[in-house]
Amino acid sequence: MSDTNPESSNFNALNTDVTESILSLLPIPSLVRFSSVSKLWRSIITSLPPSPSSSSSPCLFLFGIHNTSSFHNQSFAFDPLSNSWLRLPFPSLPSLHLVGSDRFLFTTAPRFSFSPILKPNWRFTSPVRFPRINPLLAVFSASSKLILVGGVGSIGGLVNIDDRLPVQIYDSTLDSWELCPPLPQAFRSNAHETLSSALCKRKFYVFDINSCFISSFCLDTYTWSDVQTLRPPGLLFAFLNSCNDTLVLGGMCNSDRGFSFNLWRIEEGSMEFSEIAIMPEALLFGLVDNEDEEDGNKFRTLKCVGSGNLIYVFNEDGHKKYPACVCEIGLENRKCTWRSVPHLPSPVNKFHKLVSFCSTLSITDVFHSEQTSIAA
Q1: 150, 61, 45: which is closest to 103 by C-alpha?
Q2: Above 60 in pLDDT, residue 158?
Q3: Contacts of 346 (CB under 8 A, 6+ apart)
Q4: Is 162 exposed, middle or buried (0-12, 13-18, 19+ CB in 10 A)?
Q5: 12-30 pLDDT, tens per residue?
Q6: pTM for this structure?
Q7: Is omega for the bond preceding 347 within 30 degrees of 0, making it cis?
């Protein structure tokens, strides 16, 4: 790197506060590129405040896992600010039972471990009481804790489908697990396959994608709320998300207007819903095969994940190469804007499992994520 090029000289002439303000508005890919221009630029970029900037938007992460050949594993991140996909180095995994949430990857069985997304540094926890496969998981980093809900039991590498569906909370400060009241009985049928979840205002919501049952676990009292039904008219299936401290339900409907993918804002407590957006038809049918327009089953491979002010909808079917679109929810006027997401960079391999989630990224995650801690 050189400090004598004209760009460095001009950049050095700017006030430090102005420089940091400018850089804080740039997307992560741009900051990574600019950090290699000179030692000065890298020093300024890596000294930016560690917390995500106010302009930080949630990225969509896709981790494709091949069961028999790790050579075919791939990972991608879509950055909405630059409107581009990043091909990430696939991390070495302690286990194929992978979950992602809030800037971290987790392996959940046979041992539980976690690592920053971008710079793998796996930390194994004390033994979890009930090892789980495909559990629901959320991080409440302000308390340095995470919650593990449901999933399939794993005993000696074998699946145990008859065990209870426990709730376990991990305290990273004490490196200890606490067993909590299990999931309500209503969620125990095929729960590892049909549940969606959202962490909102210190409540962990569990929603059954098909039956539309919903309940919340209070992180203060460690109790479950009564099970309610959340089913807007014509709903076929849906996913629950938390966006800027608001519950947002995204799902497929079949009504007199035909098939549509809708978003609803959900009121906590009453579970009353109000429609906030409908995906444009051209975007919806661009995510699926159009051979049979009357066949609603083709939409069953759609999935919805969201965080912050963004909701991503994509097709988990590998032969479609995972097409996606994104909806931006306006922070002030609540106006929703849909757009397509560029295709994944080729080549895209075939996977046995796709792990998907949303997460913001900060300068710390890119340049200073060697230390493994789920604290805020």
Answers
A1: 61
A2: no
A3: none
A4: exposed
A5: 566 667 766 777 677 777 7
A6: 0.87
A7: yes
